[in-house]
Amino acid sequence: MTITKAACVGRPRGFDIDIALEQALNVFWRNGYEGTSLNELTEAMGIKKPSLYAAFGNKEQLFFKAIDLYENRPDSLFNIAFQHEHIADVIRGLLLGAAAQFTDCSHPQGCALINSTLSCSEASDSIKKTVLERKLKHKQQLADRFEQAKCKGELQDDCEPVVLASLMTTLFQGLSMQASEGASVEELQQVAAMAAEGILTVCVKR
Amino acid sequence: MTITKAACVGRPRGFDIDIALEQALNVFWRNGYEGTSLNELTEAMGIKKPSLYAAFGNKEQLFFKAIDLYENRPDSLFNIAFQHEHIADVIRGLLLGAAAQFTDCSHPQGCALINSTLSCSEASDSIKKTVLERKLKHKQQLADRFEQAKCKGELQDDCEPVVLASLMTTLFQGLSMQASEGASVEELQQVAAMAAEGILTVCVKR
DNA sequence: ATTGTTCTGTACCGAACGGTAATATATAGA
DNA sequence: TCTATATATTACCGTTCGGTACAGAACAAT
Questions:
Q1: Claim to verify: residue B64 and residue B91 sit in the same structural domain
Q2: Helices B17-31 and B59-71, axial angle in degrees (round to 10)
Q3: Domain check: are A57 and A148 in the same one?
Q4: Most exposed: A37, A74, A86, A181, by fewest CB within 10 Å?
Q5: B45 plus B84 within the same structural domain
Q6: Please, is B153 exposed, middle or buried when counting C-beta atoms within 10 Å of its C-beta (0-12, 13-18, 19+)?
Q7: Is residue B164 one of the residues assigned to a domain?
Q8: What count of other Cβ atoms lies within 10 Å of the Cβ of residue A68?
Q9: Chain B: residue nearest A122 by CA?
């Protein structure tokens, strides 16, 4: 899916807009929104500033498009883990999957969405707000999935789906930060495994 | 403990250096290192830039001094929680204490150390490195305390103190982020309670 | 070949950044 | 009162920030 319809008249664009966007995502992923300068972006994307502005609007819109690209990846953590039938497998899949994906060295470490939110002063308020909404949406998806599991009788009676969703979000954010700080895949997997074991023990009927 | 020895000659300083430092800490706490500008600092501290530079060196040194102030607070989370004898109380104290302190509205939300690390591009590398060392030191303190508990037979045999310390760190970082994003004290306490219950169940002998 | 359209590159904008030179001002000691 | 010293104030430095005006270059349609 291209971002801007290819023009059939005029000078043709000299770069692949999808590849450029992916490069931009990588920079935002690594440095966050405010931590990324236009010079870093243009250098990584292999284009000059006016080309960037013509193709993507401005830094803010470029960021949103990059985040869209990130969230629509087919190998998204949620997409994979939610395919499991049993809630225990979902929880294990989410935590161990996060540990694996956040340390996957084929792209920057951690979660792009979580990393981006960080380096944001009061200046870029719309960025903060939008990223927060996305994260809230994901938390809601988790809560919905856990609620569904509870209806099926998979969860303990005293386990609140919303709280469990918050706890998972907390763990994701912590795992993402640790990954960004250079934690190894082994360390994060041990952490994820211990967390999963604890959650399964106190929240899931067996 | 003052930062700079009070001069007994020359024009006396027109502001309280300790109060100014505390104001600086609050700004860094709220906005992170790179997210904080000198104008914000001087405004919050009630002084002009040359006074700031005369008293604290530069932005980087001011940050280090502010972080020192933060870590040497008497009501530090670790100081309080480590006073408990039983490891179960330590773990509960750490998690519930974090939920409470991170949402305490008498100061910025979240953990200052964790928040600061975030908004740091490759530029301020020494900041990143120093903050990382501090966080690592805290993780080590946790690991030592858990190791000690294991020696006393308080932990399950298959519970690795280092992994448990990593999991606690992960939870702290997640809780701090959620607090910074505006989570309520109630929500965080529920999350902390659930996490504590899980950890106590799988890691601690009862 | 000309025109219209769109992209590319250079060179620049005002604003904000961290940091400082120069100078005025307030105190202690002589 | 005068001098030495340390602080406060103003006004400025060079750099980088996000963003853009402008002119040239490459294509499709005529």
A1: no
A2: 90
A3: no
A4: A74
A5: no
A6: exposed
A7: yes
A8: 14
A9: B31
Average pLDDT, chain A: 94
Rounded average pLDDT over A55-80: 95
Two structure tokens written together for A49: 């500033």
Asked, for residue A103, whether it belongs to a domain, the answer is: yes
Q: Which alpha helices (DSSP H) does chain A contain, by range?
A: 17-31, 38-45, 49-56, 59-71, 77-81, 87-102, 112-118, 125-151, 161-180, 185-203
Q: Same domain for B24 and B99?
A: no
B171 contacts A121? CB cut-off 8 A: no
Give the end-to-end CA distance of chain B in Å, rounded to a whole number: 44
Q: Provide the CATH number for the domain around residue A46.
A: 1.10.10.60
CB–CB of A32 and B191 under 8 A? no
Which domain range does residue A191 map to? 74-203
Q: What is the mean pLDDT of residues A28-44?
A: 95
Select from B32, B122, B174 the Cβ nearest to the Cβ of A171: B174
Which of the residue ranges A8-22, A153-167, B5-19 would you say has the lowest mean pLDDT?
Answer: B5-19
Residues B96 and B62 in one domain: no
Q: Point out the residue nearest to C8 (C-alpha to C1').
A: A51
Residues B50 and B120 in one domain: no
DSSP B184-195: -HHHHHHHHHHH
pLDDT reading at A150 higher than 80: yes
Q: Binning pLDDT at 50, 70 and 90, where does residue A8 land? A: confident
Domain's final residue, options A70, A104, A131: A70
Q: Count of domains in chain A?
A: 2
Tell whether B38 is within 8 A of chain A (Cβ).
no
Tell me: do A192 and A133 sit in the same domain.
yes
Any domain includes A113: yes
Smallest Cβ–Cβ distance between B119 and the set A118, A163, A198 belongs to A118
Residues B60 and B84 in one domain: no
Q: Span A62-75, mean pLDDT?
A: 95
- Of the pLDDT bands very low, low, confident and very high (cuts 50, 70, 90), residue B120 is low
Neighboring chain A residues of B174 at a CB cutoff of 8 Å:
169-175, 177
Structure tokens belonging to residue A65 = 């498009």
